[in-house]
Amino acid sequence: MNFELQYNDTKSNARAGLITTDHGVIETPIFMPVGTQGTVKGVHMTELKEDVNAQIILGNTYHLYLRPGIHILEQAGGLHKFNSWDRPILTDSGGFQVFSLSDNRKLHEEGAEFRSHIDGSRHMFSPEKVMDIQRSIGADIIMAFDECCPGDANYEYARKSLELTERWLNRCFERFNSTDPKYGYSQCLFPIVQGCVYTDLRRRAAENIAQKGADGNAIGGLAVGEPTEKMYEMIEVVNEILPKDKPRYLMGVGTPVNILEAIERGVDMFDCIMPTRNGRNGQIFTRFGTLNMRNKKWENDFSPIDPDANSYVDTLYSRAYLHHLIKVNELLGLQIASIHNLAFYIWLVKEARKHIISGDFTTWKSGMVRQLSNRL
Amino acid sequence: MNFELQYNDTKSNARAGLITTDHGVIETPIFMPVGTQGTVKGVHMTELKEDVNAQIILGNTYHLYLRPGIHILEQAGGLHKFNSWDRPILTDSGGFQVFSLSDNRKLHEEGAEFRSHIDGSRHMFSPEKVMDIQRSIGADIIMAFDECCPGDANYEYARKSLELTERWLNRCFERFNSTDPKYGYSQCLFPIVQGCVYTDLRRRAAENIAQKGADGNAIGGLAVGEPTEKMYEMIEVVNEILPKDKPRYLMGVGTPVNILEAIERGVDMFDCIMPTRNGRNGQIFTRFGTLNMRNKKWENDFSPIDPDANSYVDTLYSRAYLHHLIKVNELLGLQIASIHNLAFYIWLVKEARKHIISGDFTTWKSGMVRQLSNRL
What we know:
Distance between the termini of chain A: 42 Å
CATH superfamily of the largest domain in chain A: Queuine tRNA-ribosyltransferase-like
Shape of chain A: globular
Oligomer: homodimer
């Protein structure tokens, strides 16, 4: 993987760059649709490419390890072959999912023992095992295995958690560096800055990670319950330290406004289930604000879903029709909302990139943040 | 609407024809995907056109009357405008749905009183009202309101039911003929032959309907619990009497084999929820038989879903991937299976048409019936 930093905004820390992987290039800032179980819910691979314009998607180690299972993915020749997505893939390490199974997992120095949410079977994730699994999944970008500390953890808990995460990170790198990719294309490992909402922990974590010389670096453990302003503050603290010549990935964030604020603070990569999950619940994001499609006011609005038309669904279908589909719980409603929202998110980061390049990012961003907060 | 009978098979009663409506032409024999609530479940309108190659789809009067409601469809300018499907639409009259609400409906000479399955609200469908509703929905082909008699009804029940259906049919025609289409294109009314499994009732019903001079005629009340051979026998009885120069529509049927048998007996039009509903349950129809995608045997079969490739999903995705999606209950699994099965059904009737035209329909059909019965 290679990262070329192409433009630095002069009035903020926003940047535009180009990531090159063996499965193609990614223009940053970028939003990555989440394909937890090897599929972005409700969206065909062809639609992801042609209608959503996704340049990279996510997979999830925890879910893919359980189903279809690593033996199947290895036989397939990796996830790209299995799900027919031939552009870049990033896999989350499963740390977040394992730690979400609060009653069903135990944490040791060695790793995390957990029970499957599907059949209760026992499993163990160690840093080494998670590296091996991600080698087998075959993502272009793989993530370190860490403890994702709750947003409201006290300092002592957060410090101990970070220390464990740092010891695990060393083991991740050791395993990663002593193993080869399985399918003939290269993979890279991103470490994850933890440290909860404590400035000194975040700084220490970022400094530790900065000297690892990784191909890219992630910021984790944010948007997990802490105040939004705290999140922005932590991003600033961390991005002062993380190398400027490597991409920075803010994990699991967020609303369109969160994304613009983070871009302004020097983040390059994003993923979030919000566009698909909220879409399935009837929330539609547009440049002029959000629409709750369940609202009766749309029942006879026969205008296009979004006149901006970032994807064909926006003008093919009307708001009244989408309202009907969502209200009667039809699959097509979920499909339309997912395509629309993903295409909107990707339009938004592409637009941010354009304005970074043209030099008016901060002005554009202020206007957008105001608009995006509207409820239509 | 106009029907041109283009070819008669010399060795059977199979026919090939051309239906012309104001929304385009339909080559028969044809299979019509079911869009109960104004959407074919899990399939975009673009996919229906380009990937499934649907020439006409169904809507359901009962469901559309309840949601979104006729006032919305009228404001939209009809169902075509509402759901963006600009090819022909046929609406089922809702008779079948109302009579399925066994505990929640009462039958009178005037019509059927029923309670909504959604909110328990009271409604009344009379032949006149159902004609008016279908005028408002704006389907190209609308269906008579009838009582759909259970497949195991005794003779006395079936006879009385048929008599009511015949009186209602007169009222349907009266109302239909005294009203105009609402949206500037023409609509036509198909009467429905009932009579359960009783030859003399079916014959009487067909004779009554034959002299109505309708643009097309339907056979209803089959595949509702009676033996399959009985169904074929009833089709033969009825098709001896129904006009040869008008299309014949067998309602709600059926498996691929049922369809070929009915084509051989002179049926031109079909609809069925089987390709979409069974698809959502993991059943895939192919030329070589059916596949149960839940079966573990597919978990590492990385070959295309169907090498015949009647639609792009067949070769883009593998059996192993579809198995995974269906097993983990992912939306994309339902979407792929629905597109595949619909494209297969439409390929099948198109192929039947080709063989009717080329004169080897019966030979081809015998081979297909054997293959289609396989379980792969």
